[in-house]
Amino acid sequence: MRRPTLLLLTLVLAAAAPAADRPSWPGLEPPALLHAIDEHDGSLIFKPWDLAFGPDDRTYVLCTGDSRVVVFDGDWRAAGAFGGAGGGPGEFEMASCLVVAGEEVRIFQPYRQTVFDRDGAWLRTDRMDVWVLDAVAVAGEVRAVISDADRLGAALDAHGALRGVFGPTNPHTDPAARMERSQWGIAWHLLPWDGGLQLLDSMEGVWYRDPEAATVLADLGAVLGRGWSRIEVDEDDETTTVNTTIWTPLSGAALDPHGRLWTCAREHGMLCVEADVPPRLGALRAGRYAVSPRGELVILGYQAGEVKVYALPE
């Protein structure tokens, strides 16, 4: 019975956290809304968590509320759905992300991937040695943020086996660091760009040119603040540490065709960031960000149960 109590305390303390001063960055005009897709009693989308774009103008939205993938065509009309909750063929649970790699749609959950063709037919389910926390496809190859390896990033083959590792030292291999950063799949974002990858550490608010963290393109955390808050709750003479994301400065991330970073400052709103240029700050648009091949800015709202599509601002 301890978990609900701790969760309630965490939410109360998070709600009570003071808002930081608004940075004096230039303003960003509100983007024009093109499409809005909302939950309808779970009949279309239910808790959308991740999305990926196929080569045929279709968009695949992973809904964790009912463990389904909902497909939309190039005009954002519903074009089918597949999957389902469970452990049987074509089913998955606790999914963290999906990618479209070649002719396959790969759904990742703890130590397993479920693979469909792009029409939704189940192909196979593979057991894996790592837990994929976030993943992207680069030239048909899957790159992922993982647990259980010496480095944070990994290249995966078609069956989820490691082809190689890259990036910073993996905190999941250190129990103390694991306690400090228990949601690195949310904190780190791999961003495909120009045939390679860039990296956003949303906990520190730092945008890097590549996953080896060689060049800093922007340090937003220097203005927004950074790091986790830590709350210790004494219950029944036992001290339990609860880690929260109250002070994690950024959420969601995507690169557009111009190489601009789109993200959200949790306390303030949408950010458009370019290297060596002051960020522009707009109205709050929290959620998971993506930029479609058609140049649309797509934002998933998990709590609100919505997908919103905007014209990409200039």
What oligomeric assembly is this protein in?
single chain
Q: Count every beta strand, where a strand is a DSSP E run of 2 or more residues.
A: 26
Amino-to-carboxy terminus distance: 51 Å
- SSE pattern, N- to C-terminal: HEEEEEEEEEEEEEHHEEEEHEEEEEEEEE
- Would you tell me the structural class of the helices and strands? mainly beta
- Total number of helical segments? 4
Low-confidence stretches: 1-19, 178-184
Strand order of the largest sheet: 1-26-25-24
Describe the structure.
- The chain has helices at 2-16, 175-180, 184-187, 221-224, and strands spanning 33-38, 48-53, 59-63, 68-72, 78-83, 97-101, 104-109, 112-117, 122-127, 132-138, 141-146, 151-156, 162-169, 188-193, 196-201, 206-208, 216-219, 229-235, 238-244, 250-255, 261-265, 269-274, 277-281, 288-291, 296-301, 306-311.
- By secondary structure, it is mainly β.
- It has a four-stranded antiparallel sheet with strand order 1-26-25-24, with no helix packed on it. A four-stranded antiparallel sheet has the order 2-3-4-5, with no helix packed on it.
- It is globular.
- It starts with a helix and ends with a strand.
- Mean pLDDT is 82; it is low at 1-19 and 178-184.
